[in-house]
Amino acid sequence: MAYSLTTVNIISSFLILVLGWFLATIFSNILKKVIKNIGLNKAFEKHLKFTLEHNLSSIVKYALIAVAFVLALRRLGIPARVFYWTLGVIIVLTLIFTLLALKDLIPNFLSWIYITKTQKIKRGDTFSVKGVQGNVLRVNVLETKVRTEKGEIIFIPNTLVRKTLKKQ
Questions:
Q1: Within a domain: 114
Q2: Is residue 61 part of a domain?
Q3: Side-chain half-sphere of 127: how many Cα atoms within 13 Å?
Q4: pTM of the full predicted structure?
Q5: Same domain for 152 and 97
Q6: How many domains does the chain contain in total?
Q7: Are residues 20 and 50 located together in one domain of the fold?
Q8: What DSSP string runs through 68-128?
Q9: pLDDT string in tens for the chain (168-residue length)
Q10: What is the domain extent for residue 147?
């Protein structure tokens, strides 16, 4: 029974992907254990907010899977630039979604800088915004924590606090 060249290419591409994923997972796990045994996490834990062991092994794993994907595309006769364009589009979309997620973070952070530099409100001050009055408990990087007269704790975004301060 003879198979067509297309069938052989599809099956071999699939096997390249499966083997690439399998080898990438094994290599990633080995790298995790090596990093753990060397003690790199402990050496960098004061400077990094993430575990080097997990993140570095994940990067290596996905890089190896990407190489397997390019090899599988080549086996199918699809140029690697299709992969690169697709990867570029994914990166651009990721950046756009990340910036959209940060759209509130940056103005609140800048407002926090304004609030702390001008010191127009501090802990213990009575503050009123949009009809809600209370004592300032804390000014955080993103919001200001206020206790109302009824004893409720509310969080007011720093951009709203800054706008209220500028009106006064």
A1: no
A2: yes
A3: 28
A4: 0.51
A5: no
A6: 2
A7: yes
A8: HHHHHHHHHT--HHHHHHHHHHHHHHHHHHHHHHTTTHHHHHHHHHHHHHHTSS-TT-EEE
A9: 677 888 888 999 999 999 999 999 999 999 888 887 877 666 666 555 567 777 888 889 999 998 998 889 888 888 878 888 888 898 999 899 888 877 888 888 888 888 888 888 888 888 888 888 888 888 888 888 999 888 889 888 888 888 887 766
A10: 120-167
